[in-house]
Q: What sequence folds into this?
């Protein structure tokens, strides 16, 4: 549930947007990408979001269907355009983002009364993001969906997904993150996101703080550390770490979403933490070596190849 838009990524790397001559058009938005990533791994996925009533919105519906993501809960907002996101590509680690979400984004116009709470309760995994908390009515809708998950499904995931351009300051965001964490069973974030949500930046301290969230529902904390890999800590004390796979980075923006889709796959498969993290890291590395996000998501054979060869640089398959 959450952000959905069109990514317009430059087909020239190492230059600013003022010098880019051509762009590729892709489905984008972190929750949408996670749904695509899980679908590529054989999972039945659906997205709760909104678009504009425009050609870009029609494109996103077509893309979702092509990726095997159920779009029945993606509706139109006639008064707002479908969001666009541009990036600049300066490998290996500089990918500035430019969000065009004014005068407002349709995915922040998800209203509580429009939610299919029965479907949300029935999902084996439900994935929501911190961006959905940044404005009303999406904030109330996101919290209502999370509350509806109490005792439902196998996992309720809160992806902290901190995007500073959507908030006035981190202090404004923290109480809303705290309320959302009261209803999540899995919390996922990088070090910046964990610091916003908990005040802790040390990986172990951040994981413990997520597990200690008011309400005590979080059973698994996953802390992404970029080139240092990922740490996962479970409420029962189980701890696992996995190093990243080496990769020649093309565009690092979709790696976290690929990680998320593979994390969901591992949770549903009942894998142990170490195996889940290794597969999720491999998925992230593969996408970091490709330009696009959604269309770059790997299938099981590509992840297996990456793990077998020890590198995320895997040729993209049609």
A:
């Amino acid at each position: 549930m959450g952000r959905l838009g069109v990514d317009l990524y430059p087909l020239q790397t190492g230059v600013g947007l003022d010098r880019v001559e051509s762009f590729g058009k892709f489905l984008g938005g972190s929750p949408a990408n996670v749904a695509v990533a899980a679908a590529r791994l054989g999972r039945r996925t659906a997205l709760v979001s909104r678009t504009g009533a425009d050609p870009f919105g029609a494109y996103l519906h077509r893309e979702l269907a092509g990726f095997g993501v159920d779009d029945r809960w993606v509706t139109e907002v006639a008064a707002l355009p479908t969001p666009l996101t541009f990036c600049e590509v300066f490998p290996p680690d500089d990918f500035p983002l430019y969000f065009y979400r004014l005068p407002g984004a349709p995915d922040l116009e998800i209203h509580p009364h429009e939610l299919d709470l029965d479907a949300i309760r029935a999902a084996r995994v439900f994935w929501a993001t911190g961006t959905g908390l940044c404005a009303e009515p999406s904030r109330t809708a996101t919290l209502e969906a999370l509350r509806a998950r109490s005792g439902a499904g196998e996992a309720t995931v809160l992806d902290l997904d901190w995007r500073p351009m959507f908030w006035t300051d981190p202090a404004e965001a923290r109480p809303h993150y705290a309320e959302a964490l009261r209803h999540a069973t899995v919390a996922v974030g990088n070090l910046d996101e964990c610091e916003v949500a908990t005040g802790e930046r040390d990986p172990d301290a951040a994981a413990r703080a997520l597990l200690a969230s008011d309400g005590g529902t979080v059973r698994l904390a996953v802390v992404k550390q970029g080139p240092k890999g990922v740490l996962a800590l479970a409420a029962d004390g189980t701890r696992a770490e996995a190093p990243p796979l080496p990769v020649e980075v093309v565009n690092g923006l979709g790696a976290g979403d690929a990680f998320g889709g593979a994390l969901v796959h591992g949770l549903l498969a009942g894998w142990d933490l170490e195996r889940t993290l290794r597969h999720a890291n491999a998925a992230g590395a593969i996408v970091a070596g490709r330009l696009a996000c959604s269309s770059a998501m790997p299938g099981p054979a590509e992840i297996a190849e990456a793990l077998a060869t020890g590198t995320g640089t895997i040729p993209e398959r049609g």
User: Anything to note?
Assistant: The chain is about 35% helix and 20% strand.
